[in-house]
Design goal:
The chain is mainly alpha-helical and 199 residues long. It is 51% helix and 7% strand. 18% of the residues are buried.
């Protein structure tokens, strides 16, 4: 007989895979500009609290400096990112979004929001609320596994959210500089994590 743990593990995997396939695939706007979801995540994050540098992108993606440089080169080639020398350190470049990138982000967010609104409108209000609460409960449960997620960045820039879930639960931001969250969110007062075993 299937246990609750097995069922939850399977369903979480399916939600993750379906989210990537349905909502986080390659995107192109009416002007023909395209970007992968990872590239969109980077663009939103760069725009949240500029200026940022290539080493910040590497830290954000948990990638090597050469890998981050390659990603940024692709974004520059598409006309989505530009750079200029940092005023304090002329050896480093600050990264900024172009108007073309902001138009792409706006179109992506609008299209995805419309798709979700259509899907959610097919559900009775009770099931919509249950869905939202269930997802929040899943996040709470997974965050309770502190050793596994302590240094994880959930890349809230993917949705340009001023609320970093990790910081709301008292975790430090792995991509912050000098104690300043690079997601652009204010530093919340950490709240105690619930370590009570749940069955």
């Amino acid at each position: 007989m299937e246990t609750t743990a097995t069922r939850v593990a399977r369903d979480l995997h399916m939600v993750s895979a379906l989210t990537r396939r349905v909502l986080e695939g390659e995107f192109a706007d009416p002007a023909g500009t395209s970007a992968s979801f990872t590239q969109l995540v980077i663009l939103k994050w760069l725009d949240a609290a500029t200026p940022r540098r290539a080493q910040d992108v590497a830290r954000f993606l948990s990638a090597s400096a050469p890998a981050a440089t390659q990603i940024l080169a692709r974004l520059r080639k598409k006309g989505l990112v530009r750079s200029r020398p940092n005023r304090k350190d002329r050896r480093a470049d600050d990264l900024f979004l172009t108007p073309k990138a902001r138009a792409l982000i706006t179109e992506h967010d609008s299209r995805n929001a419309g798709r979700l609104e259509t899907l959610l409108s097919s559900l009775p209000s009770g099931r919509r609320n249950a869905l939202a609460e269930g997802l929040e409960t899943a996040i709470e449960l997974l965050l309770a596994d502190h050793p596994s997620v302590a240094d994880m960045c959930l890349q809230c820039g993917a949705h340009a959210s001023p609320r970093c879930v990790m910081r709301q639960h008292g975790f430090s931001c792995p991509t912050e500089r000098d104690g300043i969250p690079t997601c652009g969110a204010p530093r919340p007062v950490p709240r105690a994590r619930n370590r009570t075993n749940r069955t």
